[in-house]
Known about the structure:
Chain A is an all-alpha fold. Chain A is built from ten helices and no strands.
Amino acid sequence: MTAEARPRLRADARRNRDRIIATATQAFADDGPDVPMEEIARLAGVGVGTLYRRFPDREALVVAVVRDSLATTLARARAAADSDAAAAADPATKADPATADPAAAEGRAWDALVNSLNPSHELRLTMRLTSLFSPTTAAAVRADPAITRIRREYAETLDALVLAAQAEGSLRPDVGSGDVAHLLSLAAYGLSRAPDATAEIAFDRARAIILDGLRAHPTAPLPGHPLTTTDLASE
Amino acid sequence: MTAEARPRLRADARRNRDRIIATATQAFADDGPDVPMEEIARLAGVGVGTLYRRFPDREALVVAVVRDSLATTLARARAAADSDAAAAADPATKADPATADPAAAEGRAWDALVNSLNPSHELRLTMRLTSLFSPTTAAAVRADPAITRIRREYAETLDALVLAAQAEGSLRPDVGSGDVAHLLSLAAYGLSRAPDATAEIAFDRARAIILDGLRAHPTAPLPGHPLTTTDLASE
Amino acid sequence: MTAEARPRLRADARRNRDRIIATATQAFADDGPDVPMEEIARLAGVGVGTLYRRFPDREALVVAVVRDSLATTLARARAAADSDAAAAADPATKADPATADPAAAEGRAWDALVNSLNPSHELRLTMRLTSLFSPTTAAAVRADPAITRIRREYAETLDALVLAAQAEGSLRPDVGSGDVAHLLSLAAYGLSRAPDATAEIAFDRARAIILDGLRAHPTAPLPGHPLTTTDLASE
Amino acid sequence: MTAEARPRLRADARRNRDRIIATATQAFADDGPDVPMEEIARLAGVGVGTLYRRFPDREALVVAVVRDSLATTLARARAAADSDAAAAADPATKADPATADPAAAEGRAWDALVNSLNPSHELRLTMRLTSLFSPTTAAAVRADPAITRIRREYAETLDALVLAAQAEGSLRPDVGSGDVAHLLSLAAYGLSRAPDATAEIAFDRARAIILDGLRAHPTAPLPGHPLTTTDLASE
DNA sequence: CATGAATGAGGCTTCATTCAT
DNA sequence: GATGAATGAAGCCTCATTCAT
């Protein structure tokens, strides 16, 4: 997934690496950013040495976890954008607006936008993590080239979705992809804490309300100007 | 500020205690939840011994900080509610809807609700803190009787504001005080991170969009049922 | 002994500090430069925490040990120089060269030089240490201002002794204080390894032979030019 | 190079083994006695596994390195002794003292002694190594039969050189081969540290002074008795 | 009471050594 | 045989907490 000089990992090493990242993601989410490395190793069923062979220090592990999670999120958003494009190319879909489901009347682009923002379990955990790590670690995360690239590509994908939704008139024109990303990351963050059904509902409701706020029926002018993703780069 | 048995601390001791809490609040906000106790003591200009005399252990200090911050927030929300009640009792205010400021057309209760949710510096810190502490410490915070009481009183105050806004027709009827608290805490949380102007704007815009979503113009039924604050107690 | 802002240490702290340095000096000599910090602490009868409170890391401890040892050595060399000066001022001492002990016929300055080079137990340990530490640590030692100052003062003292001995004709004129320091440090180094009587003898003999070589009876011109202490600064 | 049961290693394995020893010798000299085994393996271009196949543990590698180095040194000292013997047997050499180079007036045996003590690069490394390893490792080195044998043979060679030089009157009679070995090892040790020109000069000068001290012009009786190599066995 | 010195458990990381591929 | 992945013991250092001054 990265462009590093890591041509091929031995099968078992690869499996270990993947399991460590998955375990670490979960452990960080469960116990906070300070979970002992030994605990992570234990949960992953490996010795500390193996953990450190793969990730030179805690920071490297965190970066890998975030990188992995963001890559998944990007793939998801892209899939949503692509399926939207495919649907648009297929005249059979939503052929006649008049006969369409009124609840889905917002249009294809809107649906694509909403789908792309449905946070995966992984992303939720990452949302939480990125806000919990120490300033030093956060800086390391932002400095990672692979993460930077993913963020940029994600921003581009989201930009396209936002513009399409605004073109079809379903998304209010005075918001930018930065606003959208910010709001949805907030919603996802709220979800990431409690793992139970209530949190699930609270998230769904919050998301619905936020989406209502994003629809093209502004009741009052928004302050400032539409935020682009770049505006939030320092987030 | 709290309802504890406060056996009349000597003036200077009292000052010490207050300074420690203020310092700790700032230190937690600046450097994260792991600031060493010695660092806090140093910043407060006292020895560790003094710190430990006031707060038997780190958890007690955290609890005190959160308690203090929540108490301030509650007082602020109450003041907003009270001024609303006072305004309602005063026929001179907003006497004639026709002459009222159109931008404020949502009604007095709506304004009161919005005001009560304008996060103070203190609240922002608290938002950040409560989401950053370890699960263990978070549990200790929730278990604190004084904090529980404050949360309950805060919920009651918010309930009243929500009901009033729904009664006047400005707040959509399918939300509860839990939804409102959840959404606004999310917005405030987003703010608490970066202290720069961009974050300020992002927060203002996010809040505006959320408020639009909360207004009484539901475009689609919300999933589930209106959340009460109790629903979110485990958050 | 240093010019740091350490005005006064609490009596017990001071005692601990001294004991730690003494213990560390011995431990380094006995077990090499890698003695675990915990071992040093244990031998000194304190907890690791105390050790680290006084010396932020291993390097700081090493620097302190070397500094302490060099200071002792400097004091010793100075005492030798001073007693020589005092003797010279006292007409009763060695009043008549003709009646002096033939074995001591070399003169007062020579005796002073020899005395100043009688390595203390501490210095022997230090000799061994400075050559055993890692390049990084060695660099830290050389970078220490207090150590730099002591080395400079020591060089000045030795310079005076060397010049005096050459003036009285007992020390061969084609050597410098750098040569003298180098040779004697070699002898002392050899001594520092084995702690038994044999080593003691070997050292005494080696020193006697070296001193013979240093006497004013050069049988062959020495290569290069007389070394000054500065020439050996990188040693 | 050693007298072990060397069951005819395959050519490439043999090459591996030699490269590992050479690499390790250099690595120890460059980076100190704590170079990780993996680093040595990497520098030698083999995997750790291969390293451990040849040398069961770190101690075995160190012993092999020292053994190798000492064997080289012994060969050199023997060559010097042999050439001296050959020269002595050849009446053409130094036939007429009157026509001899005055600077070489000390005699053939003296020259042989001096030559045998001219430290090779290998010996310098060994000097450094043997003094840097931990007490435990140093003991293992001394306990190695091959090393013991080499030391013994070296002592015998040196004994012969010393006796010859004393017989011809160039070496003072009150020193033993132990004294000579001790002094020259000290000089060589001093050299092994800094690899620059200053160190070269300092070594040359120190050696010259020491040789002056060793010449047959004792100005004072030496303490103790002439040391044999055995006296220094524990060094 | 205030201070800051002492303690030691606990987390991070390294590396000698073993073992599966 | 060669390789390098896995293991875990051991050392460094931090910091919450206790206690002597």
